[in-house]
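Annotators were shown the component list below and the corresponding predicted structure, then asked to write short factual statements about the assembly.
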Amino acid sequence: MSAPGRPKRELGDASPLVPVLAVVGIGLIGGSFAAALRRAGQVGRVLGVGRRKSSLDRALALGLIDEAVDYAEAARRADLILLATPVGAMRGALEALRPDLRPQALVTDAGSTKSDVAAIAREALGDRVGQFLPGHPIAGSEMTGPEAADPALYQGRKVILTPLDETPAHARAWLTRVWEACGAHVLLMDAERHDRVLASVSHVPHFLAAAYMAQVARAADADLRLSLAGTGFRDFTRIAAGSAEVWRDIFLSNRAAVLDELDAFSRALDELRRTLENDPDPRALEAFLEQAALARRLWDGRSAMT
Amino acid sequence: MSAPGRPKRELGDASPLVPVLAVVGIGLIGGSFAAALRRAGQVGRVLGVGRRKSSLDRALALGLIDEAVDYAEAARRADLILLATPVGAMRGALEALRPDLRPQALVTDAGSTKSDVAAIAREALGDRVGQFLPGHPIAGSEMTGPEAADPALYQGRKVILTPLDETPAHARAWLTRVWEACGAHVLLMDAERHDRVLASVSHVPHFLAAAYMAQVARAADADLRLSLAGTGFRDFTRIAAGSAEVWRDIFLSNRAAVLDELDAFSRALDELRRTLENDPDPRALEAFLEQAALARRLWDGRSAMT
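Structure shown to annotators:
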């Protein structure tokens, strides 16, 4: 039996990295992955799996996929399978793929939390969990659906892979090359670290923006407040407009790390607040604000370079 | 003695609303006010007062002001005096203007807090406090200095006036017309309400963004976190890059309202947090997030219309 991530077809140097790709969920993330590999000449045939026929028909018409197939056929034919579905749908997808999964196939995902996905994969795949390598492309857009697919979506963006103990080294190396062919920079880390870092820089800002937005909207004079809100308010609250269902799932699946980071935020907020209440300390207040301002300006300069 | 806000010169219908304007502090806010009135043909002569000769020279060269004068001369000649200085400099400015202030002159300001400015004016002007009408144009830019002055800065923006009990009705009406000539929409409210509303939609977001930014920057793995921060993080923290000195003064001068609104925010945060900790309640979590998302999308739609 061949090892996962090492396609059995030997097609020579000119053969694509991924002879047969299957994408479960052909929206922004999955469609862009297929389109990027196609543009790079690194995919042979693209199979699409999805719940809605209308989405699959549009993906076919757009040339994102070559065929619409079911889970069993994707499992029997694909070298690489990307699960571009909400985390809540992954257990079902893995269970549907497992009976027919080729031993040399690799399955990956694009979910925004990783410890829970690893646990789900372990339960759904059992002794074949080494064929699953969790991943998270840090890229997105406000748009959804196959029409939003963009071969340049991953260009210059970061993709985090969180290998399991069971993941063979060559599968890790192969999936890294595949994402690099999409233009992405690949980082490897363990799932716990990924989840803590993402809780910090992505999930907690959303949590705070939602709490803040609801508080303003509930005020007795909310209309007056909102009529006087300017550009600072606009940027600070923008993320609060995101899908409640998507973010509910993210918070629930990364619960422990989000709560830890919220605790750390609350300690910082208390410290800043103490410089203002009772006996205000203008120097400590300014020093705290200056630390935040310098860190933010430094980040701006750094992110402008990448 | 004429009443404040009613220029004694009677020049007929074609005369400008403001025969002689004095601006203390010719930067973005003060320079744009002079430029807007000049473009509208509603100002005769513009006097500039400032600490730094280099700024005054540049304002003269740019045609923003006609003459650089001292406080005494501005007080003796101007019909309207705009204090476009930090709140911390207003007491000194008012004390310097008072001895020579014409009885028919009106003084206003552009500070972002109003209760404290009213109290300062009451102390500095004494029985002439009726000649001071606090104001706050909700407009700004990242740029500073006379070069940043823009006659269109106030176009379509809101300006809040917070009249004192001593403010004559005609002074209120006249200053409203002056700001309208700059293209602004004028709202009247009392200073306490202004300060509470601005604490809510401007000061608290800055406070939270600063606390959050400092917490991330202090983490042991801050570099990794910041390297994985994306566009949500960018928008949520943008305001934290603002001047620490300016924001220190704003928080100190609007302390009570900021602390009250922080309390209200913390109650909302606690409520949202309770849906996630111990015994998570996915429905309540989603309902809270949905309320925030709908409020934010509604605001976007509304603000897009104005």
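Statements collected:
1. The radius of gyration of chain A is 22 Å.
2. DSSP finds twelve helices and nine strands in chain A.
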